[in-house]
Amino acid sequence: MNPRAACLACLDRQPPALFEAALWIAAEHDPQLQPAQALAELDSLLLQVRAGLVDLPERELAQALLRRLNELDFHEDDSLPLRPRAALLHQLLQRRRGQPLSLALLALELARRLGIALQGVNFPGRFLLRVPGADHQLDPCSGRRLYAQDCRELLQLYQGRTAQLSASHLLACDARAMLQRLSRNLRQLHQQADEPLAALKDAERVLQLGPANLHDHLARADLYQQLDCPQGERFDLQHALLLCEDPAQRLQLSQRLQRLSDSPALH
Length: 267
Description:
It is a single chain. By secondary structure, this protein is mostly helical. It has two domains: 3-173, no CATH class; 175-262, Serine Threonine Protein Phosphatase 5, Tetratricopeptide repeat (Alpha Horseshoe). Helix content is 60%, strand content 6%. The chain is built from twelve helices and seven strands. It has helices at residues 3-12, 18-29, 35-52, 61-71, 89-95, 100-114, 148-159, 175-192, 196-209, 214-226, 230-243, 247-262, and strands at 75-76, 97-98, 119-121, 128-130, 137-138, 145-146, 172-173. The strands form three sheets. It has a three-stranded antiparallel beta sheet with strand order 4-3-7. Strands 1-2 form a two-stranded parallel sheet. The protein has a two-stranded antiparallel ribbon with strand order 5-6. Strand 1 (75-76), helix 5 (89-95) and strand 2 (97-98) form a beta-alpha-beta unit. Helix 2 (18-29) runs parallel beside helix 8 and helix 8 packs antiparallel against helix 9 (196-209). InterPro entries: SirB1_N. It comes from Pseudomonas xionganensis.
């Protein structure tokens, strides 16, 4: 079974094997990676985490788990430019540095094994965590509690001062949504690193894991263009046109499609 198929098979389990699925995503980019070995490393980490958790009320254990990871030197990767390794889980286990989503996936797996209630929140711009029923979110990088005003300020940081916080921003998300976001992160990081073939793997996976948006199709169309694959570019431009509601952008997409149709390279 290839890494993509293994990833999807993990998601088909009940409950989904989220962390293992994310390791298979990493294996698409690192043929030397053995997910079973990474899971064994996680077993060792679990013992360290468990040993450091104090006897707290159940509602406080999730925050204590995140703070314990900090004590074990797991932190947000603040290197510039950010490299794809920040989103790859086996690299997170080795380097103890990663994106918020990567750290969240680690925390969710540890919480599952420890019987701690914890959920992922697909917040715009920065992935968050939450304890079911709590009145706050948790930053996966620090364990800091984020209340409504904190979330409002965070949203405006990423979307501008006019952005309005809504209940939809704070909904828990499922395993497929998390891995689709992970794939989008990797697509962007590989594009920034000028690795279009790697980015194309991520772009294809984005479309397999859930409904694709306008930007997903445009991103893959740009990769196909960079890789001189007009058939693939045309396919994604046509789908982007179906999803586009902006008249000016629709015109640009139509013109780009027309140029592809006029190209002798398309047959």
